[in-house]
Design brief:
- The structure is a single chain.
- The protein folds into four domains: 150 residues, ATP-grasp fold, B domain (D-amino Acid Aminotransferase, Chain A, domain 1), CATH 3.30.470.20; 73 residues, ATP-grasp fold, A domain (Dna Ligase, domain 1, 2-Layer Sandwich); 291 residues, Rossmann fold (3-Layer(aba) Sandwich), CATH 3.40.50; 194 residues, Succinyl-CoA synthetase domains (Rossmann fold, 3-Layer(aba) Sandwich), CATH 3.40.50.261.
- Helix 8 crosses helix 13 and helix 12 crosses helix 17.
- The chain contains 24 helices and 30 strands.
- It is flat.
- By secondary structure, it is an alpha/beta fold.
């Protein structure tokens, strides 16, 4: 573009305000009609032509943030005021003043801000929000990656909190939505077509009383288009799969010392009942746990599919020629002491990657806690936990957090498809994991813990594609300044801008959570239940207070608790005492009859105005009832006998088991999710209960907030799929 070429030839980093508006106007942004003036006299003439009142601004390539510098004079009504304003601007601008801008004075109570910038990770990014002088203070802004179409732009606008400003407001008409949408689409187009434009700021995007939208101020910052270095070569899905299905494993650095990594890894694999060949390797040779120890992988007679390395970092490079000679293609590098330790560690890691690539070797790690694939009983992690096979793929940039989640999954009965701790991601990245398990039919849900991203655009495109087939649930580490510093020291990489990352998640359909346990709560729900078709929830509870709490939680999370129909109330009147709640939530008034519970559950699932059911207190009564039974027996043991408590609890367990089984069959019949909340959990309580012959499972959480959060996220994902 000629304007930009001219500015660059003059060594300028910004366009003048007048030039910026010419660029914006060319792309369809509604800009204020203005005139440029070289002198005071010209300013007088322009004001007369435009008609008072007018705005006078200083014009110059180096004049930015003009309001703060006193270079903008508003509501000037005559030539005398023009003259005084011009003198003041000239004094403030000094030698940077190149002329004046004269604009009509537009009046409007509503001001928005729109802009464009190039995020270091994700590229051209559009911004929209509440504008004016309080933009930074209010921070009611949203972001979206370019390119945007009109539908994307409308979604952005609908995401700001100040939605009242987008409707009729204090006697003023609603803003011209089409103009706002066109402005955002124009910014997106500029970002994709003119890489030399690094930043655009339109503030304010003014809305008049008639709803007309006008850009009255604009800044465009120039720069060189960045050639982002490609540091990681994409890994083919088949190569990812090779890591998780080795037929033979060599443990290099094997040790007999308890709790050393060289002992933790192979002992977990052995005890976990892995059926492939296992070889122990240590330069000292000898014997460990009755097994021969080879001094080098080259001494091993058979083929090796995976090498698990736990030797110190400084000894790893020397292994590459041996691996190449032995034709080992996959290496799980547990060892730390690389990029996470500083510059010397980064240099060592770069050299390791270079030599590994030349040898045709693929590394996972370094500084990782390992992998697992329950489908072949492969539990190759430092923590000795062994979850059952399932549909959740777990890939984390923190091995410690990952193995904690594996332990939680094992306890709660949540099935795991595979786990990988990516560590420093010297070669295999979180983007590779998503693409690798995208084509895996056993993977139903993708769960990620993310601190940094190596290729933002690839991550976005992969997530958007994978999310259409299976939900992606992610936790972002490094959301605060302190967290960002921790992430850098932990992984040797800086975390991305969290606001942009959240925008990426919204666009790509990633379900972004706030706490580690949310990851597996949601993975359990997504992998066990059908998606709700709407946001209407029927609630049944053994206690009224819980119903109130659950209703509040539903509303706060974007769910609706619809009123019961008269017909439904009449049917429930025949089942419950007359003092039941007669509404939704349905207070079961401590009714313990499981048949009644099942009847009400089915009636709710039949109801066209109900998309999901939340039940509370029906499961988990054992803890509370046990105390009642023990007290009763102590008072009258002759009547009840020694087996009274155990027999009664066994009967209750049978009722609860039947309720779960029957509820799962109803889920399959009506294709609507049902989520439970324990009255009180005990050591036998589990999140997931499988029912033989059923594709869906029973899901129960310990608290109402966890249950409601799961339903809300499932609804949001279903809406994203529809869109």
């Amino acid at each position: 573009m000629e304007l930009i070429d001219k500015a660059k030839a003059q060594g300028r980093k910004t366009l003048t305000e007048a030039e910026a508006k010419q660029v914006l106007k060319r792309y369809g942004v509604p800009v204020v009609e203005e005139k440029t003036a070289a002198t005071f006299a010209d300013a007088h003439k322009m004001a007369e032509q435009i008609g008072y009142p007018v705005v006078l601004k200083g014009l110059g390539a180096h004049l930015t943030h003009k309001t703060e510098k006193g270079l903008v004079k508003l509501n000037l009504v005559n030539a005398d005021e023009i003259n005084k304003a011009a003198l003041a601007i000239e004094k403030s601008a000094g030698k940077d003043l190149e002329g004046f801008l004269v604009q009509p004075m537009l009046f409007g109570r509503r001001e928005f801000v729109a802009g464009l910038f190039h995020d270091a990770q994700f590229g051209p990014t559009v911004m929209f929000g509440v504008g004016g002088i309080f933009t930074e203070a209010i921070e009611d802004v949203v972001f979206a990656l370019a390119p945007l179409d009109k539908k994307d732009a409308r979604k952005m606008i609908e995401q700001i909190k100040a939605q009242k400003l987008l409707s009729a407001f204090r006697g003023e008409k609603e803003p011209d939505m089409e103009a706002l949408i066109n402005a955002l689409v124009a910014l997106s187009k500029i970002g994709m077509e003119i890489p030399e434009i690094r930043e655009i700021d339109i503030n304010p995007l003014l809305v008049t009383a008639t709803g007309k939208v006008t850009a009255v101020d604009a800044l465009i910052v120039l720069g060189d288009a960045l050639d982002k270095e490609i540091t990681h070569v994409p890994v083919a899905p088949r190569d990812m799969g090779r890591f998780f299905y080795p037929k033979s494993i060599a443990f290099v650095g094997a040790s007999s010392t308890i709790n050393k990594w060289g002992q933790l890894m192979f002992s977990n694999v052995l005890v976990g009942n892995y059926q492939g060949e296992i070889y122990l390797v240590n330069a000292k040779g000898g014997e460990i746990v009755g097994r021969h120890v080879y001094k080098s992988v080259t001494e091993i007679p058979g083929q090796i599919d995976l090498a698990v390395v736990t030797v110190p970092a400084e000894k790893v490079l020397a292994l590459i020629p041996e691996f190449k000679e032995k034709k080992i293609k996959s290496v799980l590098l547990i060892s730390s002491g690389f990029a996470e330790t500083g510059e010397e560690g980064k240099r060592l890691e770069r050299e390791l990657v270079k030599q590994a690539r030349e040898a045709g070797i693929l590394l996972l790690g370094p500084n990782t806690m390992g992998i697992c694939n329950p489908y072949i009983s492969l539990y190759c992690t430092g923590a000795h936990v062994r979850p059952k096979p399932g549909g959740t793929m777990l890939f984390t940039q923190s091995g410690n957090l990952g193995t904690q989640l594996l332990a939680f999954a094992e306890k709660e009965g949540i099935g795991i498809r595979a786990f990988g701790g990516s560590g420093n991601e010297a070669m295999i990245t979180i983007e590779d994991a998503m693409e690798g398990f995208e084509v895996d039919e056993l993977t139903k849900t993708v769960v990620l813990y993310i601190e940094s991203i190596k290729n933002g655009r690839r991550f976005y495109e992969a997530a958007k594609r994978v999310g259409k087939r299976k939900p992606i649930i992610a936790l972002k580490g490094g959301r605060t300044d302190a967290g960002i510093k921790a992430a850098a020291s932990h992984t040797g990489a800086m975390a991305s801008n969290v606001k942009v990352f959240k925008a990426v998640c919204r666009q790509a359909g990633i379900i972004l959570v706030e706490q580690p346990m949310d990851l597996l709560d949601l993975s359990a729900a997504f992998s066990s239940l059908p998606l709700p078709k709407g946001n209407r929830v029927g609630i049944m509870t053994l206690g009224g207070g819980w119903g109130v709490v659950a209703t509040d939680l539903c509303v706060e999370h974007g769910l609706e608790v619809p009123r019961l129909s008269d017909d439904t109330i009449n049917r429930f009147n025949k089942l419950l005492p007359e003092f039941w709640s007669h509404g939704n939530p349905i207070d079961l008034v401590a009714e313990m009859n499981t048949d009644i519970h099942m009847t009400i559950l089915e009636e709710l699932l039949k109801w066209d105005e109900c998309d999901a059911v939340l039940y509370m207190g029906i499961i988990g009564r054992k803890v509370m009832i046990k105390g009642v039974l023990e007290s009763t027996m102590k008072l009258d043991i002759k009547r009840h006998g020694n087996n009274f408590v155990n027999d009664s609890l066994l009967l209750l367990e049978t009722y609860e088991k039947q309720f779960i089984e029957r509820s799962v069959r109803l889920i399959e019949q009506y294709e609507k999710p049902v989520v439970g909340v324990y009255l009180l959990p005990d050591e036998t309580s589990r999140t997931v209960t499988e029912v033989e012959g059923c594709k869906y499972k029973g899901i129960k959480f310990i608290t109402p907030e966890r249950a409601v959060k799961a339903l809300a996220q499932m609804y949001q994902y279903s809406q994203w799929l529809k869109e």
